[in-house]
Amino acid sequence: MSDNLTMKKEERFALILGILLSIILITSLIIIFKDNFNDKSLSRTACIYSDGKLVKEIPLNSQTPDMTFTIESKYGSNTITVKEGAIAVTDADCANKICVKEGFISNSRLPITCLPNRLIITIKTKDDSALDAVTY
What is the CATH number of the domain that holds 97? Predict the structure, then answer.
């Protein structure tokens, strides 16, 4: 009867491997989704730069009304849309329209850039003052 209660070496290995994989999966999910939850809880501001100069700041929160406007410069024009706490370039007169293909952004990970028209849209949060890397 004691043989039924003891685990074989392969069963113990499989159990330990399953537990380790579960811990890794749960930790990965926490790390991935932690950033998403934090981005939504922070106050975010979209900063729109044209030819290196800040031309407009728009708060991105639930109270911000949906809007569409155009930024024009001597290099070209970009139509910008703010919707549901996110911002995007929805039309541009540049040739490749990579800025339009980037879609809506709502966090500070990647900016929207239109190099031909010299337009950059970044998201700034309250927490941006903290250093996340040091380079030499």
Answer: 2.60.320.10
Mean pLDDT confidence for 88-93: 95
**Three-class DSSP category at 116:** coil
Q: What is the pTM (predicted TM-score) of this model?
A: 0.64
Same domain, 49 and 35: no
User: Is 99 buried (19+), middle (13-18) or exposed (0-12) by CB count in 10 A?
Assistant: buried
CA dihedral for 31, 37, 43, 46, sign (positive or negative) = positive
Question: Does 51 fall in a domain?
Answer: yes
Residue written as token pair 């991935």? 32
Rounded Cα–Cα distance for residues 77 and 128 (Å): 29
Cα separation, 43 vs 112, in Å, equals 19
Q: Look at the chain and report how many structural domains it folds into.
A: 2
pLDDT tens-digit series, residues 47-83: 999 999 999 999 988 788 999 999 999 999 999 999 9
